[in-house]
Structure formats: structure tokens, C-alpha cells
Amino acid sequence: MKAGNISQTAWKRSVRRQLNSRREEALFTPSMEEPCTALRMADGGIVVTATADTSGNVPECADYAILKAVNDVASRGAEVIGVSVQLILPLSATEAQLKALAGSMDAVCMQAGIQLTCLKAETNPCVNQILTIATATGEAAGDSILRTEDAAAGQDILLCGHIALEGTLRILAEREEELSGRFVPSFIRQLKEQKKELFAAKAIAAAGKAGAAAIHQIGSGGILAALWELAEASGIGMETELSKISIRQETVEICEFYNLNPYQMTSAGSFLITAKNGDAVVKALEGAGARAVRLGVATDGNARVITSGEEQRYLDRPAPDELMLWRERNCH
């Protein structure tokens, strides 16, 4: 198989057809597009969980698994309470690395206002890098759950955040020495400072209160994959403008340096949002300190159109994630 998410065809053929277990408490049906589990409790409350993973050999690598899982739970309208983490370490790992990982992850949790509720670690001869698996848990009221499938024709499609920032920061963490020889110190410093943008729970809550119908975090495969997932989950078409997509200059330059496509790079901490009144949601997001723009509109039918200047094209099926391809080339 190719690096990154398995294909939609493979998932439908070899995964979905095998999933026949059911419980009435489960509110979401498993799908390629849905990152969360939501369970209705006996008292009427709803527990939402999401799991994310990352790999790498620097302490910061684990942070991004936590951030992605936390943001996925928050995007369902839930208040995140805590996160549990499983670390699988190569035999070459040291106790000093483990200490640095634990400290970095706890600092992320403190900044996000949640608790690191469980941290287990083991070594495994089958891995050659640190593998982090994080599961975030939150709670939501019964009437506050947001679903990607609730996007509908006529709604505005918004982008919150800057695409590929997560992927850019992860490359910087792995290759800071190399990049420091290419870019001036202020460039590296300014990029590191943008990590705070990935803590998005406040912005997500503001979008929900302002009338967001659906919120979908941009993950593996980047914004182009996320647009496809949004359309697949809700059955909408779309008309979007490529030039409206927010991307930082630091991301552009690092992607050019490594010959990567930022539109197909993992972008945790940025979101696609649909709303009847997109202007109100953009205003709320900006009030929460987030970058937000209107990309286009959801339409009836199946056409998924991306406009770039005078050129129009149709959205392709998701391609392998560019960060995964970069790691495949550089991290063996």
C-alpha cells in the first residue's frame, strides 16, 4: 500500500463490509470521513473520543498526536477533558528521550487546559522511530454535537487557520539543523512561534456558537483531501477558490525547498467549516484570534469544482499525504 491513509476504495471494500457490530449508544457510523466516536450515556450526556498517531525521533513529535486528537473531539462540539497516550519506542530509545517526551506532552496539555490522564510506554523491536498514539476524551450536551455529514447545499465553506502549518512544523522539528543552514534565524523563530495556532479549541467553540453546521479538521492528505471528505460525508458538491486558501510564507518556502505540495500536506489545527451565515462565523473566529476566510459554497449535485484564476478543475480523489511521502524518502 502507499504511504498515508488507505484509499477510499480499499476502505469500503475491505473495512466497511466487515463492520457489522452495533450498539444503540453509538451515535456515529464508522466511515473514512469521521474521526470520532460518540457514545450516549445513560444520563443523556455524550462522551466523544478521537485517536491520532504520529511518528518521529524528536520530543515534539508526540505533541502533534495530542493536538490532532484534541481538535477532532472539539470539532464535534465537545469540551475536551483529557488525553491518554501510548508510546511505542524503538530499542535504541533512551530514558532521557522518554523524559523529554513526557515533559513536552504535559506542557501541551497544560497549554490546552486538559489533563494527560494516562501515559504508557514500551519498547518494541518492530519499530525504528517513536510511535505516539493519543486518545482524547470530551463531553457534550445532546443538542451540541456537530457532524461533518451536516454540511448542506447553500452553506458557505470556510477555512479556519493556515494549511500545512502542522506538517511544516513537524519537518522543522526533524530537520532544524539543515533548515537553519538555509534560512535566517528570524525565519526559524517566527515559524516556531506559529505552533500556538494549532491550539484551536477556543476558535472551534466560537464557530459553533456562531452557527457552524459542520466542522472538519484537515488531516492526512491536506486541504484537498479534506474538501473531498467533506463532500463525501455530506453528499454535497462545491465551488471553491484556490487563491482564497490561507498559507504562510514559511510553509511555501519550506515546501519549495523539499519539493512538497502544501495543498496535500497534513494540516491539523486548521479546519473546514460550513455555515448558512459564513460572515457571522468568520467574524466569530476572528474575534477568537483565528484566521478565517470564505473559500466558496456547497452546492447540489456531485460536481466538486476548484477555481484558480480563470481555470476550473474538478477535485481529485485524495492523494498520499506529502509529509508521509517526505518521511518515506528521508526517515529510513
From TrEMBL:
Please give the InterPro entries that the UniProt record associates with this protein: HypE, PurM-like_C_dom, PurM-like_C_sf, PurM-like_N, PurM-like_N_sf
User: Organism, per UniProt?
Assistant: Faecalicatena orotica
All copies of domain PurM-like C-terminal, residue ranges: 153-303
Q: What is this protein called?
A: Hydrogenase maturation factor
**Similarity-based family:** Belongs to the HypE family.
Which Pfam families is this protein grouped with?
AIRS, AIRS_C
Q: Which SUPFAM superfamilies match?
A: PurM C-terminal domain-like (SSF56042), PurM N-terminal domain-like (SSF55326)
Q: Which residues form the PurM-like N-terminal domain?
A: 60-138
State any GO BP term from the record.
Answer: protein maturation
Top-rank taxon of the source lineage equals Bacteria
